[in-house]
């Protein structure tokens, strides 16, 4: 498998907090909330410290700028799940500091574009949100499918926050429409 990184990246600060090369192909995307309206540089500084003991593949800052912290070929330390992080691209998104941890519109729109880019580069034409932990984790994605997962399924956290959790189906629908080049694609094929 050949891995590439997004051309949307405008800032790079690599984190030492990762497990090296993945042992599973990429078939999941896991959006997270930072719990703060951070800058790319601020998030990079945080993930750049070994003592943080956390990282993500990408970060989207409060202005919608995309940062690369762990290359896609490597497993980040982001979801409190070794298995999930082996197969997921993890994306930390700037958010409000209190529940529902809302994203600014520019952050959400950038997340959609970044997910489209990740799917395209990894040969995926559909992003799926089941909205159910057991169904998702027991599902084997077909060729061309990418699955959305959330941090709250693996740890006692509300991440990605109720604001983003309520929009996971919308994220899947918008990304799949763009991948298929259609504006009239029905969401029921994405939300199973």
How would you describe this protein?
The structure is a single chain. The protein is α/β, with parallel strands linked by helices and 192 residues long. It has a single domain, classed as Lysozyme-like (3-Layer(aba) Sandwich), CATH 3.40.80. The chain is 28% helix and 19% strand. It has six helices and nine strands. The protein has helices at 40-47, 82-87, 105-121, 133-137, 161-165, 168-180, and strands spanning 9-12, 18-21, 28-33, 58-60, 66-68, 74-76, 88-93, 126-128, 145-148. A seven-stranded mixed sheet has the order 1-5-4-7-3-9-8, sandwiched between helices. The protein has a two-stranded antiparallel ribbon with strand order 2-6. Helix 3 crosses helix 6. The longest helix is centred in the middle third of the chain and has 17 residues, at 105-121. It is globular.
What does the largest sheet look like? Answer: 7 strands, mixed
User: Numbering strands along the chain, what is their spatial order in the largest sheet?
Assistant: 1-5-4-7-3-9-8
- CATH architect. name: 3-Layer(aba) Sandwich
What name does CATH use for the topology?
Lysozyme-like
Radius of gyration (CA) equals 15 Å
CATH homologous superfamily annotation: Peptidoglycan recognition protein-like
The percent range for strand residues is 15-25%
Compute the number of helices. 6
N- to C-terminal separation? 29 Å
Uncertain parts? 183-192
Give the helix proportion (percent range): 25-40%
Summarize model confidence as the mean pLDDT.
94
Number of strand segments: 9
Shape: globular
Secondary-structure element series: EEEHEEEHEHEHEHH
**Can you identify the CATH class?**
Alpha Beta
What structural class is derived from the secondary structure elements? alpha/beta
